[in-house]
Design goal:
The structure holds 2 protein chains of 2 kinds.
Chain A (H helix, E strand, L loop, with lengths): L3 E5 L3 E7 L12 E7 L4 E7 L17 E8 L3 E6 L4 E6 L4 E7 L4 E8 L12 E7 L2 E6 L4 E5 L5 E5 L7 E8 L2 E6 L3 E6 L9 E4 L7 E6 L6 E6 L3 E6 L8 E4 L5 E6 L6 E6 L4 E6 L7 H4 L35 E5 L8 E7 L2 E6 L3 E5 L5
Antiparallel strand pairs in A: 1-28, 2-3, 3-4, 4-5, 6-7, 7-8, 8-9, 10-11, 11-12, 12-13, 14-15, 15-16, 16-17, 18-19, 19-20, 20-21, 22-23, 23-24, 24-25, 26-27, 27-28
Chain B lengths: L13 E7 L3 E8 L7 E11 L7 H18 L7 H32 L3 H29 L6 H12 L3 H11 L9 H10 L3 H8 L7 H11 L6 H20 L7 H10 L3 H6 L1 H4 L2 H12 L8 H12 L8 H10 L3 H11 L4 H12 L14 H14 L5 H9 L5 H9 L7 H13 L3 H17 L3 H11 L2 H18 L5 H4 L10 H17 L3 H13 L8 H12 L8 H17 L8 H13 L1 H11 L1
Antiparallel strand pairs in B: 1-2, 2-3
Helix pairs in contact in B: 1-2, 1-17, 2-3, 3-4, 3-15, 4-13, 5-6, 6-7, 6-10, 8-9, 9-10, 13-14, 14-15, 15-16, 16-17, 17-18, 18-19, 19-20, 21-22, 22-23, 23-24, 24-26, 26-27, 27-28, 27-29, 28-30, 29-30
Classes of the chains: A mainly beta, B mainly alpha.
């Protein structure tokens, strides 16, 4: 694994995210943001890995992340997302939601917007556990079971769904532009439709059997009904939200909590998961050979609009390899991406061919040659 | 060592009070009178941290990286023959050392670049400590881990000295870059330093800058190059031969013209007085030792080292100067007294990091005799426990300590059990991580107590779903009962259920406690009623009482729920069922004898009225058949 190296950063990393790159240039990502947790003084930091082919930095590894700037953050960074090229949103353990702006010219960070105690209990702070954004809208969820919608440019709150859940909501993701999906600690996926005024979910899905808390969720980039979740028992579940109440496939992935699951944004036959057991897995499914490649969605997704994905005929030909059940029959390859066992891998992000992850061993790993 | 402000002289009766903490001491000012009650002084409490190192951001990298190496070391299989394990141990030792060096370099950079004078001093101080640590570790690696035999021992010692005397290269660079290197004032110093370090090739290259090069010198150097490539006896013979030749060169004054070359010749013969003349170039007594061995006893055996070490140290250090801790540690190492080395290092350093990791590595190399301490555990375990306990006081590094405790077979688990409960649980995410640590080690008591803390917190904040999720994790039936009681209370006061998303989707968790099962079933009854499936609803309701799933306290509510079913036009309860209902009521009233409220009398009457309704009886009679 020569292409992966560890950088020790003296803070436990809770989240790492690549800065989005513009699709038109197909450039490799070069900047990522990280958030720390469990420190006396937590920080968010921006790092650069330089572009391919640039001169090596001193005598260190070429491409070792260099710190660009950092900023103090109140409370653990429980989630972090890029709003656009310059701004990130963080979810804090104090219940606050903050938008930070990264000034590239001066390499400084300033606070653009701050909603203190967005998530709270009557007499106490409630950590904000997840944030997802689709500029300028920001949706956050927390241990208080609330779902809050903000707009990045407005100071007030746009909408609050009180008591959306009686247990902690661990993660949230967009299903469509007006629908979100949340997962909670009693093992349920809930669909929320913002076009409706009611404060109840439009659909609830859960595993039959033990109510294992779910910690992460991610939607297939091209096929909006396919969703992957991971939970406390380390099982990877792939769901089809249109059909039925139970997941389509269940795969044993990790021996402890799965913290994050990500489909590769442009190559969704690849999935990545990371876990408390210190491993980061790369899942690769081979797609049906009968399916013409342009319908598989992956290679040229940036040039195809969503409507092109649903042919007039049935949905048969679009059965994704994830749902075909072949997952359990050996057409699924899994490989470990980290050289050896580490402390918990809390977060990962993958873009183009670059993967970044952060661990409780206070290390950040960057791999610039992910085989996708 | 620190002067605490404001706690000054005891002339006015001011004294210092203190209390021990896990990693620090709390100190406060107090007025102590010889007789009578003692008063209080200033209202400040000072916290004195005894281990500042774990809070330094650069040194944190040392702790994290070495933890990674430590865990890797523990997994090396014990059953492999020592021949294949030794290179692994040497490589691990080099890994540790490279981590130390990386930290040193970073601290050096910060010390140079920072504008804060105090921070710079602090960094430089830490650099000097790390330098000493790496020096000691390197020597231990050479002598104990690599355990080089005579011959290669000297080569390793030479490497050791060269690594820690890097200023020669800097000076050499300076000299070479000047216009006429041979005239540079440091020229001869550089040549002599190279000779002292046994780097004869480089010395020869430097000498070539000099016009007058003695051809005889070339022969001298050539022989030294072959050091270590032959067997010991062959080498010994050749070396003696060479030594005689050098001596002859000196005796017949072939270098008499050039004072410098004569000095070099004497050095090559290992002349002690000349060596001592170059104290500044040597710098340390151990450099002197190695150089002397190089030119007098290159085939020195490990067991003979300590004779030379002691004498060199005595010769080098003035009788006035006192040996520093570092010197006695190195001397102990040359004497192969591992325990003394560890003991001295423990005293000299303020952090257990070094001794813990070194001892652990030496233990794996099977170099430590089992040395039973008063506390019953062996030296390695004692040091690891001390180190890990120190880590546990850190708000973030406690996670590393867990792995250290894991590898202390005797007391590690006990220490971990005590410490893990003290970790503050601010967020669910952190609690989950702590829980996972406890579950993996089957610490069921800690699991239960953590889950209970989180569940109580959730309950206080009215997060019933979270509370239930925690009790499921702990398989805590008692708490699940408590939560169900809360739900039922809510229902009684408000008439509706809260958190339907939870109750409707309990799944197998329902079986965790009877009360929870009742809650689930009761909700099911309501659903059946809403869907107008009255017969099934009635059957369920009755079974809740007859199967004793419902708590006695709730029976009144259930019986009240039965009333609308009885009031229906069509018969819902069969005769048997009605009798059962009455039986339940009877049981209820008899058990509530003394506290019977007035309401159950009418209840009884109502039920009997309904059941004695002739039409119903007729229908019931028909049903009974």
């Amino acid at each position: 694994m020569e292409s992966i190296n560890a950088k020790y950063v003296s803070q436990k990393i809770s989240k790492t995210r690549w800065r989005p790159v513009s699709h038109s240039f197909l450039q490799q990502p070069d900047i990522f943001a990280s958030g720390s947790w469990d420190n006396e003084h937590n920080k968010i930091s921006f790092w650069s890995i330089g572009s391919h082919g640039s001169s090596a930095m001193e005598d260190g590894f070429e491409g070792e992340p260099q710190l660009l700037c950092e900023q103090k953050h109140d409370g653990d960074v429980l989630d972090l997302q890029f709003l656009d090229q310059d701004r990130i949103v963080t979810a804090s353990s104090t219940g606050a939601v903050t938008v930070f702006r990264h000034h590239q010219n001066s390499q400084t960070i300033s606070i653009a917007q701050h909603w203190a105690r967005a998530h709270h209990y009557p007499c106490d702070n409630a950590p904000c556990t997840g944030v997802v954004c689709s500029s300028p809208e920001i949706v956050t969820v927390g241990e208080d079971g609330r779902i809050i919608v903000f707009r990045a440019d407005q100071e007030g709150v746009v909408r609050v769904i009180e008591n959306a859940d009686s247990s902690t909501i661990h993660a949230v993701t967009y299903l469509r532009t007006t629908e979100i999906l949340t997962v909670n600690s009693i093992g349920q996926l809930k669909l929320w439709d913002f076009r409706q005024q009611s404060n109840s979910p439009s659909q609830i899905l859960s595993l039959s059997g033990d109510r294992v808390p779910l910690h992460c969720v991610d939607r297939h980039p091209n096929q909006q009904h396919i969703v992957a979740t991971g939970g406390q028992d380390g099982m990877l579940c792939v769901w089809d939200v249109r059909q039925g109440n139970t997941p389509f496939s269940l795969m044993e992935a990790h021996s402890a909590e799965m913290w994050e699951v990500h489909f590769h944004p442009t190559n969704p036959d690849h999935l990545f998961t990371c876990s408390e057991d210190g491993s980061l897995l790369h899942w690769e499914t081979s797609s049906h050979s009968e399916m013409p490649s342009f319908l598989q969605g992956g290679r040229n997704s940036s040039m195809m609009s969503r409507s092109a994905m649903a042919p007039a005929g049935g949905n048969q030909s679009l059965i994704s390899a994830w749902l075909s059940g072949d997952c359990s029959k050996g057409r699924l390859e899994t490989s470990h991406m980290l050289p050896s066992q580490t402390l918990s891998v809390n977060s990962l992000d993958v873009l183009q061919q670059c993967l970044v992850c952060g661990t409780d061993g206070e290390a950040i790993f960057v791999n610039r040659q992910v085989p996708v | 060592m620190y002067n605490l402000p404001k706690i000054t002289s005891d002339l006015d009766g001011k004294h210092m009070g203190f209390a021990w903490g896990p990693g620090d001491i709390l100190v406060y000012e107090t007025l102590h009178k010889a007789s009578g009650a003692s008063g209080s002084g200033s209202s400040f409490i000072h916290e004195v941290r005894k281990d500042e190192d774990i809070y330094s951001p650069i040194l944190r990298k040392l702790f994290n990286e070495s933890h990674h190496i430590f865990v890797g070391l523990q997994t090396i299989r014990e059953d492999l023959p020592s021949k294949s394990r030794k290179p692994q141990f040497v490589s691990i030792s080099k890994n540790y050392r490279s981590v130390i060096r990386a930290c040193m370099e970073e601290l050096q950079q910060v010390a140079v670049s920072t504008k804060d004078g105090e921070a710079s001093v602090c960094c430089l101080f830490q650099v000097s400590i790390l330098l000493a640590i790496e020096l000691i570790w390197n020597l231990c690696e050479v002598l104990f881990i690599d355990a080089a035999p005579a011959g290669s021992l000297l080569l390793h010692l030479l490497d050791w000295v060269r690594l820690h005397k890097a200023d020669v290269d800097e000076k050499a660079r300076e000299v070479l870059q000047s216009d006429s290197p041979a005239e540079h004032r440091d020229y001869w110093d550089v040549v002599v330093s190279y000779v002292l370090q046994g780097r004869l090739d480089e010395a020869r290259q430097m000498l070539m800058k000099q016009a007058t090069l003695q051809p005889a010198a070339r022969n001298m150097y050539k022989l030294m190059d072959t050091l270590g490539t032959q067997t010991l006896t062959e080498f010994d013979v050749k070396w003696r031969h060479w030594h005689e030749e050098v001596d002859r060169c000196l005796q017949d004054n072939s270098f008499a013209s050039n004072k410098h070359l004569e000095i070099i010749c004497k050095l090559l013969l290992g002349d002690e007085d000349i060596l001592l003349d170059h104290k500044e170039l040597l710098g340390t007594w151990y450099h002197f030792l190695v150089t002397r061995l190089l030119f007098c006893h290159p085939t020195v055996k490990p067991a003979e080292l300590h004779y030379y070490a002691q004498s060199c140290m005595t010769m080098f250090l003035d009788s006035r100067s006192v040996p520093e801790p570092l010197d006695s540690i190195l001397l102990a190492a040359f004497e192969f007294d591992i325990h003394q080395v560890i003991k001295d290092c423990s005293i000299a350093l303020n952090n257990w990091w070094f001794v813990a990791h070194l001892t652990d590595l030496l233990d794996h190399c099977k170099l430590l005799q089992s040395h039973n301490l008063h506390f019953g555990s062996n030296l390695r375990e004692f040091l690891l426990l001390e180190y890990a306990s120190g880590l546990f006081t850190h708000h973030s590094l406690w996670q590393l300590a867990v792995d250290y405790f894991d590898h202390c077979p005797e007391f590690g688990r006990v220490y971990l059990e005590l410490q893990i409960e003290r970790v503050p649980l601010d967020t669910e995410r952190k609690a989950l991580k702590v829980l996972r640590i406890c579950e993996q080690r089957q610490m069921s008591e800690q699991v239960r107590s953590i889950c209970k803390i989180m569940a109580m917190r959730a309950l206080r904040n009215n997060r019933l779903g979270s509370a239930l999720s925690w009790s499921i994790r702990a398989k805590d039936a008692a708490f699940a009962t408590l939560i169900s009681e809360r739900f039922l209370q809510d229902y009684c006061t408000r008439g509706t259920f809260s958190d339907l998303d939870l109750i409707d989707n309990l799944g197998p968790a329902m079986l965790l406690s009877d009360r929870l099962t009742f809650l689930g079933k009761y909700r099911e009854f309501h659903k059946l009623y809403e869907e107008k499936r009255f017969t099934e609803a009635a059957k369920l309701l009755l079974s809740l009482m007859t199967a004793k799933i419902a708590p006695r306290s709730f029976w009144m509510t259930l019986l009240t729920d039965a009333l609308p079913l009885l009031e229906q036009k069509e018969v819902i309860f069969s005769a048997d069922q009605t009798y059962e209902l009455m039986y339940c009521l009877g049981e209820l009233t008899s058990s509530l004898n003394s506290e019977a409220t007035g309401t159950d009398r009418p209840m009884q009457v109502r039920i009997s009225t309904y059941s004695l309704n002739p039409a119903q009886i007729t229908v019931c009679k028909i049903k009974a058949f």
